[in-house]
Amino acid sequence: MRSLADFEFNKAPLCEGMILACEAIRRDFPSQDVYDELERLVSLAKEEISQLLPLEEQLEKLIALFYGDWGFKASRG
């Protein structure tokens, strides 16, 4: 397992840091399942969002997928 103390959060994707923190809290955290699901969602987004669209429209479509189709919600508490 990687060390949380040695991890350079400012040089890595947010999801990497969050997964590492979850592993530190919970030894049985299903990291590989999380990575697999993230990879699946990235693939879906690439299928759904044309790279020919302007960047702003690509972002709008990604946000619609994220909060709409995929059901992500704001963090509370």
UniProtKB/TrEMBL annotation:
Top-rank lineage group of the source organism: Bacteria
Protein name (record): Transcriptional regulator
Organism name: Acinetobacter baumannii
